[in-house]
Amino acid sequence: MTTSVIRELTATARAAAHGPYAECACPARPAVLADRADGTVVRHGGTVAKAHAPDADREGLAARLAVAAHPALASVLLAPLDLPAAELDGRPVTCWPHGTPVDPEAPQDAPWEAAGALLARLHATPVEALPGPLPEMRGPHKAALAVDRMRRTRPPEAVAAVVEGAWSALPPWARAESAPPGPPHLCHGDLHLGQLVRHPAPHGPWHLIDVDDLGLGNPAWDLARPAAWYAAGLLAPDDWLRFIGAYGAAHGPAVPSDADPWPVLDVPARALTVQTAALAVAKATAARRELDEAELALLDACDRMAAVPPELPAGAAK
């Protein structure tokens, strides 16, 4: 975004925090928390303003905001501030209370149990109790966008072939080409530790944030990124067990409570591995640099995946 747009978004956050005319006595200066094509986020005091992507589906976003504000999800999703709809430079703008994020410098304190329990409660929320109509969860669509982004950067053929091989081995639903299997559940669509904050800050309970990809879909997708990291050796086994154990203890419906979860998680975990690898390759190619150790681990995981067919859940058609 341009400096002028960020300045206007900061003014929006300030007005939401104090009203349009009140004096500001906040001890900290406004801060840009994120500035990407799909969203720019600015904090002023205890308020955060977000400019969503220019091509955001307005009706879908309105439905997602209504879900985030619904009392049934008050302890799961951070609710938006109740303000009139606004736009900035052709981008819808929403405002939110500020929460304390996960500390990236303290991985040993990562709230894996909270993430698992919150997802279980999100997935178990009766869809018929929520305002609608709800859009589809955008997880598979984002995976397809990541592969397309990689293609447009024109990486070395040998590198691209590894990612493409793993991508082509996935079933159509995981490539956003058909409907997902099973009954639809309310899903987050982009779960990672950056989507958790404590609210009220700094020591309140954990909540999920960022509803841009929220919607109906296969709940296993929300477990797939930690599963993919675990399979690629990027997430410690103890952390994986903390996460999946908390999900099961909270009666999450995505995986069976009395059987191996991996047949359910295998396909979405593969898809998230491909998505992450494709983005890594795209960024490295654009920056004209070599892949780092973690990125090479993802590429190696894609190579192994292409050689082994995906698992199918028990009872699925072969």
Automatic annotation (TrEMBL):
Keywords for the protein's UniProt record, in alphabetical order: Transferase
GO molecular function: transferase activity
Domain Aminoglycoside phosphotransferase stretches: 79-252
EC number: 2.7.1.-
Lineage: superkingdom: Bacteria
InterPro entries recorded: Aminoglycoside_PTrfase, Kinase-like_dom_sf
Name of the protein described by the UniProt record: Aminoglycoside phosphotransferase family protein
Species in which this protein is naturally found: Streptomyces solicavernae
